[in-house]
């Protein structure tokens, strides 16, 4: 997911998923792999795995693929070993970029990412250079049409620990702390409401507005990073005038 406008992020990610289905399956499988490797292969006791499996199923990743991935992660089947890395850098025009990586070859990925930055006017930075500009946050989106009583719904999620509930004409966006993410998600499920998406993400504490050619420079870099197979998620603090109007 990308880290500028919250509403824009949801629609932009959905469109990108439709456009790059094969690459999406690779990224979802790696997410399942790491979750199972970290906490075991039982989604009833491994919340991260439960979320990863649900997101994979929502994007129609075949059940056999999910099962094989879990088996590889837990040692039941031989397979490639992956590791998680986070890179930091700057896009053109001072935009901060945070990148979640899952790779089986750290050196190859580092060289690839460095090349992407250099070719498009950005640069990799040392660990800690931009991470302080982002806060780890839970976000859950729910279509408004799925909620019968909006006032009751908002009160319930706030009581469950949500920090904020934002409304648009067609959706609710619930923001939580990392600690309250699971309890809020459970509260939504207990109301019989299906959510559109639920994830832990990074939200920028400060933003940089870009427009015109500057925006093209920034998003050319962002999209090149997102197209790399080892890049799971790109977060950034750029906003456009349209994002500001729609946020």
How would you concisely characterize the structure shown here?
This protein has 247 residues and is an alpha+beta fold.
Write structural notes for this entry.
The chain has 247 residues and is of the alpha+beta class. It has a domain at 6-73: Integrase, N-terminal zinc-binding domain (Arc Repressor Mutant, subunit A). It is 45% helix and 24% strand. It is built from nine helices and ten strands. It has helices at 6-19, 21-39, 47-58, 63-73, 106-119, 150-159, 181-190, 212-226, 241-246; strands at residues 83-91, 95-103, 123-125, 134-143, 164-167, 171-176, 197-204, 208-209, 231-236, 238-239. Strands 3-1-2-9 form a four-stranded antiparallel beta sheet. A four-stranded antiparallel beta sheet has the order 5-6-4-7, sandwiched between helices. A hairpin with a 3-residue loop joins strand 5 and strand 6. Helix 2 packs antiparallel against helix 3 (47-58). The chain is globular, with a radius of gyration of 18 Å. The mean pLDDT is 88.
Report the helical percentage.
Answer: 40-55%
Give the topology string: H per helix, E per strand.
HHHHEEHEEHEEHEEHEEH
Structural class of the secondary elements? alpha+beta
Shape: globular
Number of DSSP E strands: 10
CATH domain topology of the domain at 6-73: Arc Repressor Mutant, subunit A
What profile does the largest beta sheet have?
Answer: 4 strands, antiparallel
Spatial sequence of strands, sheet with the most strands: 3-1-2-9
CATH H-level name of the domain at 6-73... which superfamily? Integrase, N-terminal zinc-binding domain
N/C terminus separation: 16 Å
> From the 3D coordinates, which CATH architecture of the domain at 6-73 would you assign?
Orthogonal Bundle
Specify the number of helices: 9
Rg value: 18 Å
The CATH C-level class name of the domain at 6-73: Mainly Alpha
Share of β-strand residues:
15-25%
């Amino acid at each position: 997911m990308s880290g500028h406008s919250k509403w824009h992020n949801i629609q932009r990610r959905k469109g990108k998923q439709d456009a790059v289905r094969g690459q999406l399956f690779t990224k979802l499988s790696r997410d399942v792999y790491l979750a199972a490797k970290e906490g075991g292969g039982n989604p009833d006791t491994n919340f991260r795995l439960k979320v990863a499996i649900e997101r994979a199923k929502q994007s129609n990743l075949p059940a056999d693929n999910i099962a094989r991935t879990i088996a590889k992660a837990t040692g039941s089947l031989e397979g490639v070993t992956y590791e998680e890395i986070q890179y930091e850098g700057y896009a053109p025009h001072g935009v901060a970029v945070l990148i979640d990586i899952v790779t089986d070859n750290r050196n190859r990925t580092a060289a690839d990412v460095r090349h992407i930055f250099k070719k498009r006017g950005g640069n990799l930075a040392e660990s800690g250079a931009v991470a302080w500009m982002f806060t780890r946050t839970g976000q859950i989106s729910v279509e408004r049409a799925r909620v019968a009583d909006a006032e009751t719904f908002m009160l319930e999620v706030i009581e469950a620990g949500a920090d904020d509930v934002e409304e648009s004409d067609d959706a609710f966006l619930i923001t939580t702390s990392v600690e309250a993410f699971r309890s809020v998600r459970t509260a939504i499920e207990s109301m019989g409401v299906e959510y559109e998406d639920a994830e832990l993400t990074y939200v920028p504490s400060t933003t940089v507005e870009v427009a015109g050619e500057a925006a093209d420079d920034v998003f050319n870099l962002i999209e090149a990073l997102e197209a790399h197979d080892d890049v799971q998620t790109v977060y950034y603090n750029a906003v456009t005038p349209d994002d500001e109007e729609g946020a």
